[in-house]
Amino acid sequence: MDSYSKTGYLKDDFRLFHITDEEEHSFSYHYHDFYKILIFIRGDVTYHIEGKSFDLKPYDIVLVNAGEIHKPVINSRSVYERMILYISPAFMDACRDGADSLNRCFVQAQTSRSNVLRVELFSQSRLYQVLQELEKSFGGDAFAAALYQKALFLEFLILLNRFSMDAYTGTYIENSRCNSKILPVLDYIGEHLAEDISIDLLASRFYMSRYYLMHLFKQETGYSVASYISTKRLLRARALIQNGMSVTDACYQCGFKNYSSFSRAYKKLFHTSARGERNPS
C-alpha cells in the first residue's frame, strides 16, 4: 500500500517561511493537518493537488486545505522561490467576525474546484505590502512585536478573502491539466467515506474496468485507490475526534468496520493513538 506522510509541524497559530531552492529538487506527495498558503514567486512549477494540476505564474496564491494530498513538480532547473504560510485550524476557527470566517477563501477554492487564486497586480497591492511587512516582523523584537505580527497576519487573511470574493481582482484559475474521469471519482469518495467503497463499486458506477480505474487513478493522483480512501477516512476521523466526538463513533462514522484495524491504521499514520488525541500530553 502507498504511504503518504504528513510534513511540517505547527505548534504556533501561524508560521511564515521564505524558501528558495537553487538546485533541482523533487517532492513526494504529502499532506498537512493545517491550512497552507503558498505564494509562488518564481520558477517553473506545476502544483498537483487531489488529482488537479496547475501551472503556476509569479504571485499565484496556492490554497491547500488541511488533509489535501499535494506536491509541486519542478519542470526545469530554474530557481524555485516561494513564501509559505501555515495556519492552525483552531486559530482559523477562532478568528470569526459574526458569520464571516477567514477560511472562506479555502471554501471558495473547493467550490471552484481550483486551489490557485490569481490576483490582478498582486505585487502592487496592499495584500503584498502586508505580506512583506509580516515577513519582516518575524525577525524583529520591537515593542509588542507578537501583537503587531498577529495584527498583520489577520489583515493579510482579511485582504486575501476580500480579493478572493471580488471577481475583478481575484480569479480562481482553471486546472492546467486534469483527467475529467478522475475528478467525479474523487468527489464520490469524499461524499461517501462512511459507506462501503470498493474498487469494483467505483468501476461499475463510473463505467470503467477495474484495471483501468486502478491504473488511471494512480497515474493521475499518484496513489492507489485503497490508500487514498484509507487516508481520507483517517484524516476525517482525526478531525471529528479533535472536535469532541468519541473515538468509537468517529471510527464507524468514517467507514471503518473494525475498531482494532482502525486503531492500528490511525497510529501508523499519525504516530499517536486515536484516544491520545482526546487527552494530549
Automatic annotation (TrEMBL):
Keyword annotations from UniProtKB, A to Z: DNA-binding, Transcription, Transcription regulation
A Pfam family reported for this protein in Swiss-Prot or TrEMBL: AraC_binding
SMART domains on file: HTH_ARAC (SM00342)
Keyword Chloroplast part of the UniProt annotation: no
Domain HTH araC/xylS-type: 183-280
UniProt keyword annotation of Nuclease present: no
Protein name (database record): AraC family transcriptional regulator
Organism in which the protein naturally occurs: Blautia caccae
